[in-house]
Amino acid sequence: MTGGEVAGILVAVFWAILVSFLAVVLVRLAQTLRATTKLVADVTEQAVPLLADASATVRSAQTQLDRVDAIASDVQEVTSNASALSSTVATAFGGPLVKVAAFGYGVRKALGRGGDGEDVPRASSRRTVLVGRTVPSSRRRKQKG
C-alpha cells in the first residue's frame, strides 16, 4: 500500500469515528430533549391547578381585606361619634357637677366635718397594740421616754 492509500484509509476511519461520535451525541441529545419535554409537561400539569388555587386564595384574601376595611371605617366612625358625645356631655354636665361638688365640700367644711378624716379616731382615743394588748396613748408616751 502506498502512502496515499494509507492516508485515505485513515481519513475514512477518522470520518467513521467522527460520524459515530456525532450519532451518539445526537441520540443523547434526543433523549435529553424527550426528558425535558416530559418534565415541562408534568410541571405544566401541576402548575395550572396550583395557579388556580393561588388565584382563589388571593380573591378570598381581597374579600377579607375589604371586610376588614369596612369594619375599620365603622370603628373610626363610632370612635368619632363617641368623642363628640363625650365632649357634649363634658360641656353640658362638667361645669355644673364641679360646682355641686365644690358646694358640697363647702357645706361639709362649714358644718365642721370638713372631710379631713371622719373615719379616723381622734388622737386621745388611739391605742397601740403591744404583745396582744392595747396601751392608752398616755402610757405609751411614758414608755417611749
Summarize the main sheet.
2 strands, antiparallel
Number of strands: 2
SSE pattern: HEEH
Instruction: Note the overall shape.
Output: rod-shaped
- Rounded average pLDDT: 83
Q: How far do the termini sit from each other?
A: 145 Å
| Fraction of residues in H or I helices | over 70%
**How many DSSP helices?**
2
Instruction: Give me the secondary-structure category.
Output: mainly alpha
Q: Taking Cα atoms only, what radius of gyration do you get, to the nearest Å? A: 51 Å
Subunit organisation of the chains: single chain
Kindly estimate the percentage of residues that lie in beta strands according to DSSP: 5-15%
- Strand line-up across the major sheet: 1-2
User: Segments where pLDDT lies below 50 for 5+ residues?
Assistant: none
Task: Please tell me about this protein's structure.
There is one protein chain. With 145 residues, the protein is mainly α. The chain is 81% helix and 6% strand. It contains 2 helices and 2 strands. A two-stranded antiparallel sheet has the order 1-2. Strand 1 and strand 2 form a beta hairpin. The longest helix has 109 residues. The termini are far apart. The mean pLDDT is 83.
